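CORE FACILITY INTAKE
Project code: CF-77B
Contact: R.S. (postdoc)
Sample description: multi-component assembly, two entities in total
Requested service: structural model of the whole complex
Turnaround: standard
Below are the sequence entries exactly as provided by the requester. Do not edit them.
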Amino acid sequence: MGAIPDTILSELKAAAGPKGWTQDPAVLAPHLAEWRGRWTGATPIMLSPATTGEVARIVTICARERIPITPQGGNTGLVGGATPQGEILLSLRRMTLVRAVDPLNDAMTVEAGVTLLGAQEAAKAAGRLFPLSLGAEGLATVGGAISTNAGGVAVLRYGMMRDLVLGIEAVLADGRVFEGLRSLRKDNTGYDLKQLFIGAEGTLGVVTAATLKLFPRPAARAVALAGIGDVAAAIRLLAVAKDESGGAVTGFEILPRPVLDLVLKHMERVRDPLTAPHPWYALIEMSFGREDGARETMESALAAGVAAGLVRDAVVAQSETDAAAFWRLRELAPEAERADGPAIKHDVSVPVAAMPDLYARGCAAVAAIVPEGRVLCFGHAGDGNFHFNIAAPRENADAFWAKREAITEAVHEAAAALGGSISAEHGVGIMKKAEIARRKSAVEMDMMRAVKAALDPKGIMNPRVLLAGR
Amino acid sequence: MGAIPDTILSELKAAAGPKGWTQDPAVLAPHLAEWRGRWTGATPIMLSPATTGEVARIVTICARERIPITPQGGNTGLVGGATPQGEILLSLRRMTLVRAVDPLNDAMTVEAGVTLLGAQEAAKAAGRLFPLSLGAEGLATVGGAISTNAGGVAVLRYGMMRDLVLGIEAVLADGRVFEGLRSLRKDNTGYDLKQLFIGAEGTLGVVTAATLKLFPRPAARAVALAGIGDVAAAIRLLAVAKDESGGAVTGFEILPRPVLDLVLKHMERVRDPLTAPHPWYALIEMSFGREDGARETMESALAAGVAAGLVRDAVVAQSETDAAAFWRLRELAPEAERADGPAIKHDVSVPVAAMPDLYARGCAAVAAIVPEGRVLCFGHAGDGNFHFNIAAPRENADAFWAKREAITEAVHEAAAALGGSISAEHGVGIMKKAEIARRKSAVEMDMMRAVKAALDPKGIMNPRVLLAGR
């Protein structure tokens, strides 16, 4: 695209207000850098409107002038979806109002720039739980989490962001406002239009606010760390834990000993609570409405796991301090891997029951390409989601990196062959758009393009993202 | 539309196979009659394909010839969405395979013609729960429940049909097959296309199969009937019950004394388990993963309700027989109302906290038009959903019926003024399409028409339904 004329820039600045724009490279820099340094962007201007009306005025101008827009929330994405490459950068970070919290209706309405942590805290202040939780929650915004259908560690019980959205307000590609901020549990009056914006990565409009579901805060939780033999044992133990607790399992994360070793090696204030090493570990969390019986339920589930030959050893947290320490072992896994050295990372999912197969096939495929690569998986076993990472070897790393594409293809193919997904929670962005165009059926790609053309006929909304070849 | 040429009819018959079509008026009759007799239809032929391939061949022919199609499942809808008026009737009832049940993945794949009861039973046989439950579940099909995003009595805990669908297989309006039968908990690889078919009332394609979520079967449930003073007390009691049980409430239904009186008068094997009458009743169900403590949790919630001045009297079911008897009082309410005489019925929802307001405003508005009308509400209070019915008076009924439209307008306006919906769970069909075109914003109607045009450009899929003016 050509340079934006000064008159139009002035018009955009006026629409955003005096505090709502910058062209200062120093201010822009962090918004143009993907946080791991994988993509670096460029933009003529960052607009940071503070109200939905301002967003609408900006998009109206852009639609008239056919100026492409890249929306951005907390800039914590992992697939390059929020890094402009010449588009106008539309930051939602100044839209930070908590418009309403309604505990009696278990709902709250917040603007797109509220962080996930901010949303959790607003809910907590009203005695309620907003359950979406992930590593970047202090920076990641509600608008970004909706646009990427974020996941995290509570999906097993509470679902993805899609499951937590009751209503959406969004500015469409023509600048009109979709006023869908309903807080109804039931509304069957036509197509559920809000679904279109969830996981659309900003390609169909700009989410400006959302009404989110809240939940009662559990009265008690029980957390345990179990040493197990393999992934198959983990999946069977998950089923046992669900059955024994009648569905109280709210978290079920797994990691292998080599990943735990990295956490113990590189991180501080961590220790292995079990007395001997085990090939794999399952971190199990159950949540309960009543204090009494919580730990006993966990213990009986673990006992059933031992009886079934699934659990080698296990320890139940005796305090919230213990529980937090157990969770830290899993939560620090990505950071410990980074501290240990670079890796090729994948975010794949399969049906839960196929996780052992995915692990076996993925390891075999990787070993065939790079016998020296170390598979360092961890993941949300309750959701069938592995973060399937392969660490570069200490020596001859160049040969390893030269095979990067073949490795990724092998891991993705292992997932796809099991009916899985090559992007469980991180999205497509620019990173995977060529691959989804190749892997999805012609019917699905046609449907996606038809929806895109219907809602963004001029193709100005995040045009390089998600759908290739426009 | 004109008559379908015989050559095309022959082609359609061949596509459906020898057992897959009928033009016999006697066989057609029940498929053309809405079950309450409100709409009567007409069709040149009913096609009943047994496989997805047959459905695809039929729709391909119809697309080529621009022949409109009305899909039909169990024909239990309430808004005329499945009654053809000259369209080809495409019945999915012969597609009854349970293709797979995978308890380890908490998922099962069933064809569109499987009844909800059949789906529940298939899940139960595998030790799992498929929770969608509603009055017509013995006839209503999975395909119909998806196309209408059905609700029912378990929405509070498990959600609407939309929340229970992991994957969909559908035949598009051009005859191609959308193969979206994934059973993944997480898949962020582009627009979530399956959402388009849920609640679309057959206007975007024909759902042929679905992969559905399953759940652990609760180990125990506690059921209570509480006598309360008014709707406001019910909503506050709901919040108390949620808090006291940590989210174990799986059902919260309310009905007023006049409705209970009709049940006691017209139905068999029913009795009032409380010793004195109360203005309103709340039927509360909690589900638990453990047997012990279930009844105690319900009792402590009711005690908290008494302490807060919300509960006048209450009885906790001492057995499954008791529990079933309490549930019957609520489940028989529609039948008891029908037995008592005709009524004008509404299916409205508001944010849960606004239910007392809805009841007050609705009653006032109705009284202003027909002081002789008797408001007989009951509903899913946990979802903010009232079935807001007004029974015709015994005398001067003609004057009452003459005001039918004004009454409906008043009830719907009361819901809309509170941010509510005029169709909480029954859908739009042909019954409410003019009204939603009037009540929804121009932006929303434009978006819906854009989606329809994108996926069904020839307008052959259930063309009289949902979207007016085509």
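Facility notes:
- Chain A has a mean pLDDT of 95.
- The radius of gyration of chain A is 23 Å.
Invoice: internal transfer
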